[in-house]
Amino acid sequence: MEPMPTLSNSESSVAEFSPSARWSFGRQVCPQRFPANFADMCQFLVGHANTQQVHVIVRYDGRIDATHLQRALRMVVVAEPILGCRFVEHWYRPYWQRRDDHESMDLCTVVESVYPERELAEFLEAEMDPRVDPMIHVRVIRGDRDTLCYKMNHVAGDAPSLMKIIAMVSKNYLQGRTGPDVAPTVNLRSRDHSEVIRHFPISHRLRVIGSFLANQRKTRNLWLLKADQVGERRDGGHYYIRRLEPDVGVAAAKLAKRKRTTMTVVMLAVLYRTLRRHIGVTGEEGLGVGTTVDHRNYLPAKERELSPVANLSGPSRMFVPLPADASLEQVVEVINEQFKRSHKQRLLGLNYPGVILAMPVIRWLLLPVPFGWVHRLLKWGTRSQLRGLVRACGLANAGEMAPLFPEFDGVKVVDALATVSIYRAAGMGFFMSQFNGAVTISLGATESLAKPEVCELILDGISQELCSLEESSRPMPSASTEVPGQ
């Protein structure tokens, strides 16, 4: 593995910034420390923060200029200072500490490989400690064509944050090829959910708290795996990725249009049917599926564009009280009704602890409680779940990714997909992404979450459900009339 060369002052205006007690960028002053918000702490409290990662894999039809890519990425780290920090696990309140080596740390490495897929799998599964390692890293796997993998620790930001980083890298790359680098504007806006909450009136905040409390009762209706579907190993872990043909995505989009809903709702229904019919998992009274909602959508448009790299997303749960033999369209209708109701009430995705804990009154009540106590209490309370058979299941949708990737010096992107973290227990999370209509589903898991054959069986079931949907959408061939004697 060969690290990219460090930029000199003559190569980039970004490298002219030098460390001091407080970082100065023109008129902007960047502090050495940033507070860790409740969403950051929630991601860390999940445990196994080293495997809490978000990835985007990009395949090109040629080779890109990795030196310019490194420069473009380094400018993003300057613009989004949280990426140049490390997470400090303080006993009272964790915080982000600016790294001393943020100008020289390896952000982009190039690896020549005759087995690019093996190299990619090793990079995806390698741990990333937020207390030691950089928050963002890019690997260029070089053969006849380049495969690029963006890798970000989830403690620093969510999937929309990584999409924003990629867009910024693309912009910086193209600008750097046509002219001199421009010193980036440092984003010092708050990363806390309070930025979202402050736009809500008191009545809306009370409804959010009420929705959160009501939702806690329903979370007991979780999926229950069988004992032979779960292994013992809680280390390591693998990614299971399934790419479907474009026609399958078109069929799912047609169903979404016919039901006046979204692709996310259709995929949640497919996931529900797969787990009930192909895996045979059971639950109490009703079974739930969840999806991740970007809370930036609650911000005004101008503030949404300026939102920094942060964890500003949260899960929204839908509960399906239907039997295993319910049709896909029935499941879509049940989930869509709940989805629309939450959206209309402006509660979609807001029954999330990070939102509740960011409210001023709750924050004031928790002020004397040390982080270390909460960490130990959470570990004690979830110990049985981490080694049990109960699972919460959900799916996040990255959407269509093609617009994120312009041509680099005539080198085009031929495929792109996203993956989520490697989960060890309790939560079974799937990630969906699209590239020019082709759908990719991914799952990261250790044996303690589900055995490899179970993970493969789930992805097989999702493929079968979607392929049957594609077949049912095909027009029936017209009957031909045979003329005797011809």
From TrEMBL:
Residue stretches making up the Condensation domain: 53-298
Annotated TM spans: none
Alphabetical list of SUPFAM superfamilies matching this protein: CoA-dependent acyltransferases
Organism domain of life: Bacteria
Molecular functions per Gene Ontology: catalytic activity
Name of the protein this chain belongs to: Peptide synthase
Organism: Planctopirus ephydatiae
